[in-house]
């Protein structure tokens, strides 16, 4: 358990906590926290992703890593990654040797063809979760010519990770509330959910504003017949049986 902090560590921790309050974009927050962590933990490399069971790791941000190598991770190496799934199961910050033996890890394709290419050797992760799922992670690495991370480093990452998860959870909750209350966002999400084309999306946005077919046709510069053809397609895709039913569907929270 952390008992004493140097002046430098204290200042950086305060800066990190201020970032978590001030930054209202999750991607920007992950990037900024990464920059602070490299300084605080005297590390060399940083990456952060958001994981879902269906899509794997997405939304990557990274520092001091090769962009083409990260693209290879997203398309291939994440699917033969022997450590990140184990890190996700940890309830706290953990380093590589806590989830796999160094000897075994050094023989993997993941290490030799991906991590070693950028010089990553000593690593630790923190994965944040809420009831809605994985919120984001913090992946910190040092090169092979550096000392491995110590228990104190894990304790620092653990303390920051808990606040990081809370901040990301608040941002996700705020985004979900905005999605359900802002009519433009709600309609755009509804259109995406039902696979509408760009023109069908234009039609449904105007319909949601209470416009009649002739008004929609005038705004879009098309015939009334074309508008009604788009509406017919929207009915088929959404399963709505009438305009009233369609409006009810539009105003329902997007799942």
Automatic annotation (TrEMBL):
Which ranges carry the HTH luxR-type domain? Answer: 189-254
The record's listing under Gene3D superfamilies reads: Winged helix-like DNA-binding domain superfamily/Winged helix DNA-binding domain
Q: Which GO terms describe its biological process?
A: regulation of DNA-templated transcription
Q: Coiled coil located at which positions?
A: none
Q: What's one GO MF term for it?
A: DNA binding
Q: Which UniProt keywords apply?
A: DNA-binding, Transcription, Transcription regulation
Q: Which InterPro entries match?
A: Sig_transdc_resp-reg_C-effctor (IPR016032), Tscrpt_reg_LuxR_C (IPR000792), WH-like_DNA-bd_sf (IPR036388)
Which Pfam families has this protein been placed in? GerE (PF00196)
What PANTHER family does UniProt report for this protein, alphabetically? DNA-BINDING TRANSCRIPTIONAL ACTIVATOR DEVR_DOSR
This protein is called what? Transcriptional regulatory protein LiaR
Taxonomic source organism: Roseibium album
The gene for this chain is liaR_1
């Amino acid at each position: 358990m952390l008992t004493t902090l140097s002046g430098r560590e204290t200042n950086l921790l305060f800066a990190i906590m201020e970032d978590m309050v001030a930054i209202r974009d999750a991607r920007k927050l992950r990037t900024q926290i990464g920059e602070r962590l490299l300084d605080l933990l005297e590390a060399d490399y940083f990456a952060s992703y958001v994981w879902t069971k269906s899509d794997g790791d997405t939304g990557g941000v990274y520092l001091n890593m090769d962009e083409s190598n990260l693209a290879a991770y997203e398309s291939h190496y994440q699917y033969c990654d022997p450590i990140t799934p184990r890190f996700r199961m940890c309830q706290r910050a953990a380093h590589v040797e806590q989830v796999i033996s160094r000897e075994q890890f050094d023989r993997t394709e993941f290490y030799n063809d991906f991590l070693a290419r950028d010089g990553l050797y000593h690593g630790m992760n923190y994965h944040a979760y809420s009831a809605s799922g994985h919120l984001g992670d913090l992946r910190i690495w040092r090169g092979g010519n550096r000392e491995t991370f110590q228990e104190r480093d894990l304790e620092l990452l653990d303390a920051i990770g808990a606040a990081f998860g809370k901040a990301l959870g608040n941002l996700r909750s705020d985004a979900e509330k905005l999605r359900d209350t802002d009519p433009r966002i709600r309609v755009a999400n509804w259109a995406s959910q039902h696979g509408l084309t760009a023109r069908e999306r234009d039609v449904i946005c105007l319909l949601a504003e209470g416009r009649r077919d002739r008004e929609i046709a005038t705004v879009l510069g098309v015939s009334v017949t074309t508008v009604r053809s788009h509406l017919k397609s929207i009915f088929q895709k959404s399963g709505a049986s009438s305009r009233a039913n369609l409006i009810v569907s539009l105003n329902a929270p997007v799942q």
